[in-house]
């Protein structure tokens, strides 16, 4: 039995056989081959090299005739790598000494090459990573033939194991039989994690080497309650997990009975619970879980689909679907928050060195005005049909807000010119996600209609920890006293200015912070639909007197550990049965 520890991003227990994917959807069927099949496996590898080289030579010839020598040279480096005797030796050695399958050995060695290029200081050499990935893909295609995995056609529930999944791959899990996911990389609020959370089935990420330690066909338990992944558990452990899985499902079903009850404290303070969605169809889940509206619609996922950017009409239809799905409840549409981990770095010609500090969110929008205006037109048009609020992400200055509003006015002028119906007077707000905006909250309050606090980013910029990097995930701690103090000040300023304030970072959906957030005056919580029932249950058990006391005390601690254990203790008093 192999036990790995990571970060849970969607709770529960899932049990099933492993399917291991590489980054490009290739399924590596097994890690090792029995000794009697070793010779055939070696021959398969040699054939794959020969076929890949022959294919590239054909392509080079074609390019020479049609596109000229310069274009044809692109692949000569690939051919050189594929013919490199050292590469062959490295792969063959793993096959001989470790009994690795051809696909697994190829993937291991090519990953090592990629890591080496990644560490090089010359940006041109770093660019070579893409070539190495391309070579890996080509080789795997020849080794594995048509066994490229199509998750849409699984015939039984499986546990998906991968090094990483792009947001696009994650979004495609929705209609599959995948019962749980385990990944090598990722931090608790990386965008892949957020999508896994919305998807709602048990997932643990940031496991470092799960994709190399688990092979296709292994029996795997995802214990997302305790942040563990177990491979090939012994029979008594397995039996115990089957019991826990049934109990977890029973508790979830019980929580769903709260759907139509109000989120109101025992001493009658009303709280609003809203949902975060990534796709318009999630409006349905939001209503099923009792959301009063959508507090954050992350529209950028429309732009991350494999078939390219959406047209104005595609966008208009998506926003209409969300509005209709919410049946008259408000929908807060955030303009696309592309960049950083949501602009697949492979699509960029030049990789950004510090993408989290780079051309992302509102900066990306203001640098791509025609695309930004097109989205604003689609939103303005859809707003005729229902209560839409418009929200700009990651502002760090008032100038950015004013520029974004100017672009909004330009979009209105475009619509005036064409005579298309739209709503002029929609509410316009911001996501407060940078320390700069938190410090200038009073100034922002004078110009915006509402503020939504994005603690996922606010925390990463406050403590200078990349939210998607598993190497530093232990430093990414929402219990940090600095974050608690900033939140207190921001909510106080909004309340004083009479500006509607909500919180839509992952903290809003974590029961650990509910009492604190209530106590400092937050009344609008926006979270993944799946979290709503539990947060509602907790609110209905709490009193404001208790919440204020907890908040006051939490603010006196000097370290995140003290805050965390205090909040855990106080929350357990109300929810003794639930995993906190
Ligand atoms: C946030 O940063 O808290 C947030 C809700 O936005 P996202 O997670 O999409 O960056
Ligand atoms: Mg954010």
Describe this structure in words.
The chain is an alpha/beta fold and 580 residues long. The chain folds into three domains: 2-26 and 150-253, Phosphohistidine domain (Glucose Oxidase, domain 1); 30-147, Enzyme I, Chain A, domain 2 (Orthogonal Bundle), CATH 1.10.274; 270-572, TIM Barrel, CATH 3.20.20.60. It is 48% helix and 13% strand. It is built from 23 helices and 16 strands. The protein has helices at residues 38-67, 69-72, 76-83, 85-98, 102-118, 123-144, 167-171, 191-199, 210-213, 235-255, 282-288, 312-325, 361-367, 369-382, 398-418, 435-439, 441-447, 455-463, 481-497, 514-519, 532-541, 544-554, 560-574; strands at 2-5, 7-10, 13-21, 158-162, 178-183, 203-205, 219-223, 228-231, 272-277, 294-298, 331-334, 388-392, 427-432, 450-453, 500-503, 524-527. The strands form two sheets. An eight-stranded mixed sheet has the order 1-8-7-3-4-5-6-2. An eight-stranded parallel sheet has the order 15-14-13-12-11-10-9-16. Helix 7 (167-171) links the parallel strand 4 (158-162) and strand 5 (178-183). The longest helix is centred in the N-terminal third of the chain and has 30 residues, at 38-67. The protein starts with a strand and ends in a 6-residue tail after the last helix. Magnesium ion is lined by residues 393, 433, 454, 456-457.
- The residue fraction in helices comes out at 40-55%
Q: How confident is the prediction overall: mean pLDDT?
A: 90
List low-pLDDT spans: none
What binds here, in terms of ligands, is: phosphoenolpyruvate, magnesium ion
What does the overall shape look like?
globular
């Amino acid at each position: 039995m192999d036990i790995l520890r990571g970060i849970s991003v969607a709770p529960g227990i899932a049990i099933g056989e492993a399917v291991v994917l590489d980054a490009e959807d290739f399924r590596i069927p097994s890690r090792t081959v029995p000794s009697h099949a070793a010779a055939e496996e070696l021959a398969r590898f040699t054939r794959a090299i020969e076929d890949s080289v022959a294919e590239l030579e054909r392509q080079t010839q074609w390019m020479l005739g049609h596109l000229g020598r310069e274009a044809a040279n692109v692949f000569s480096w690939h051919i050189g790598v594929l013919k490199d005797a050292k590469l062959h030796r490295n792969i063959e050695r793993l096959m001989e000494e470790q009994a690795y399958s051809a696909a697994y050995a190829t993937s291991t060695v090519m990953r090592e090459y990629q890591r080496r290029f990644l560490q090089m200081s010359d940006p041109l050499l770093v660019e070579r990573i893409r070539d190495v990935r391309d070579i890996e893909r080509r080789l795997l295609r020849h080794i594995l033939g048509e066994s490229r995995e199509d998750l849409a056609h699984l015939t039984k529930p499986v546990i998906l194991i991968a090094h990483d999944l792009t947001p696009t791959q994650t979004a495609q899990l929705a209609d599959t039989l995948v019962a749980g996911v385990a990944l090598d990389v990722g931090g608790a609020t990386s965008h892949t994690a957020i999508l896994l959370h919305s998807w709602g089935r048990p997932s643990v990420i940031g496991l470092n080497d799960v994709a190399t330690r688990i092979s296709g066909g292994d029996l795997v338990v995802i214990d997302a309650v305790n942040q563990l992944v177990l491979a090939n558990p012994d029979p008594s452990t397995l039996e115990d997990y089957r019991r826990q899985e049934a109990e977890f499902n029973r508790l979830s079903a019980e929580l769903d009975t709260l759907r139509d009850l109000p989120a109101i404290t025992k001493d009658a303070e009303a709280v609003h619970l809203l949902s975060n969605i990534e796709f318009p169809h999630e409006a349905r889940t939001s209503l099923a879980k009792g959301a009063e509206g959508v507090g954050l619609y992350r529209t950028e996922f429309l732009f991350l689909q494999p078939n390219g950017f959406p047209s104005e009409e595609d966008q208009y239809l998506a926003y209409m679907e969300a509005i209709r799905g919410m049946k008259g409840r408000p929908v807060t549409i955030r303009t696309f928050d592309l960049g950083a981990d949501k602009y697949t770095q492979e699509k960029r010609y030049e990789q950004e060195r510090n993408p989290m500090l780079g051309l992302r969110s509102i900066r990306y929008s203001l640098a791509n005005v025609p695309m930004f205006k097109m989205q604003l037109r689609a939103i303005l048009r859809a707003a005729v049909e229902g209560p839409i609020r418009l929200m700009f992400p990651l502002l760090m200055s008032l100038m950015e807000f004013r520029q974004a509003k100017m672009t909004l006015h330009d979009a209105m002028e475009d619509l005036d010119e064409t005579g298309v119906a739209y709503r002029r007077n929609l509410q316009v707000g911001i996501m407060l996600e940078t320390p700069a905006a938190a410090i200038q909250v009073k100034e922002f309050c004078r110009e915006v209609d509402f503020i939504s606090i994005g603690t996922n980013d606010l925390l990463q910029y406050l403590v200078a920890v990349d939210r998607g990097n598993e190497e530093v995930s232990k430093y990414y701690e929402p219990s940090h006293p600095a974050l608690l103090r900033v939140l207190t000040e921001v909510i106080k300023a909004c309340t004083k200015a009479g500006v509607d304030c909500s919180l839509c970072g992952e903290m809003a959906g974590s029961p650990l912070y509910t009492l604190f957030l209530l106590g400092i005056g937050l009344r609008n919580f926006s979270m993944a639909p799946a979290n709503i029932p539990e947060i509602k249950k907790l609110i209905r058990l709490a009193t404001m007197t208790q919440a204020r006391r907890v908040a006051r005390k939490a603010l006196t601690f000097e370290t995140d550990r003290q805050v965390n254990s205090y909040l855990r203790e106080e929350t357990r008093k109300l929810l003794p049965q639930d995993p906190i």
